[in-house]
Amino acid sequence: MSDYKLDTILAHAGINSDEKTGALIAPIYLSTTYQHPEFGQSTGFDYTRTKNPTRLTLEKTLAKIEKADYALVTSSGMAALVLLFNSFPEQSKIVAARDLYGGSFRWFNEQEKKGRYFFTYTNTEEEMLAAISEDTDYVFIETPTNPLMVEFDIAKVAEKAHAHGAKVIVDNTFYSPIYQNPIALGADIVLHSATKYLSGHNDVLAGVLITSDQAIYDKLFYDQNTTGPT
C-alpha cells in the first residue's frame, strides 16, 4: 500500500508503467493473447481474460486509493457481486442490510430460493449487531444504503463480526474511496459498482472487488480467470 495522498496516487496512475515503449501514459491494450519470448517463458501476460496490462494498472490504482493490497476489476458491479458470492461455500449464512441495491437483492433472493445461501436482513445498525452470531459466515453492508441512505458503523460491525469468525463485505459504491475506506475500518472485502461514482457515471460499465487478504484475492483471481467476468 502507498502512503501518498489520494490526489497524488491518481495523478500518477499508470505513469511509467510501460517499460518497453517508455509511454508516459499507460496505453489501452486491446490484445487478447500475448507472445512468449521463448518456450516456457512469459512476460506475465498470456491471455487477456487472465490478465491485461491496462486492467492491471487500473486494479493497482484502485487498490491504492482504497488503502488495500489487491483489486480485481470485473465487467459490471453485478459481475463483481456474483463472482464474490460464488466463492462462498454453499449454505453460507449472511447477515445483510435490508435496504439494498435492487440488483443485489434480486440475486440474493434468487440464491436463497435455490437453497444456496441463507440471509438475515436487518434495517438498522443495532439490528445488524444483534443478528451477528456464531452461525454467521458473512456480513454484507451497503453504507450508505441504496436508496434510503441508511448508514452503518463499519468498524463496530467488523469488530462484532470478527469476534464471531465472520467476514465483512462493504459495498462502497455510494461514498467511494474519496470519503470512505472500509478496509482501513476493518472490512475484509470492498465491492464497487465502478459504473457509478468511481467512473464519473454514464461512460464506463465496470465493477471491482478489493481486499488485503491474499487468500481471498487468490480465490477470487482463480474464479475470475475460470469463469471470465472481465
Counting H and I runs of at least 4 residues, what is the number of helices?
A: 8
Spell out the CATH superfamily of the largest domain.
Answer: Type I PLP-dependent aspartate aminotransferase-like (Major domain)
**How would the global form be characterised?**
globular
Q: Structural class, from helix and strand content? A: alpha/beta
Beta strand %: 15-25%
Per CATH, which architecture of the largest domain? 3-Layer(aba) Sandwich
Distance between the termini: 24 Å
Residue-averaged pLDDT, rounded?
94
Question: Would you kindly provide a written description of the structure presented here, covering whatever features stand out?
Answer:
The chain is of the alpha/beta class. It folds into two domains: 1-52, no CATH class; 66-227, Aspartate Aminotransferase, domain 2, CATH 3.40.640. The protein has helices at 6-11, 53-65, 77-86, 102-113, 125-131, 154-163, 176-179, 214-227; strands at residues 70-74, 92-97, 117-122, 138-142, 167-171, 189-193, 207-211. A seven-stranded mixed beta sheet has the order 1-7-6-5-4-2-3, with helices on both faces. The mean pLDDT is 94.
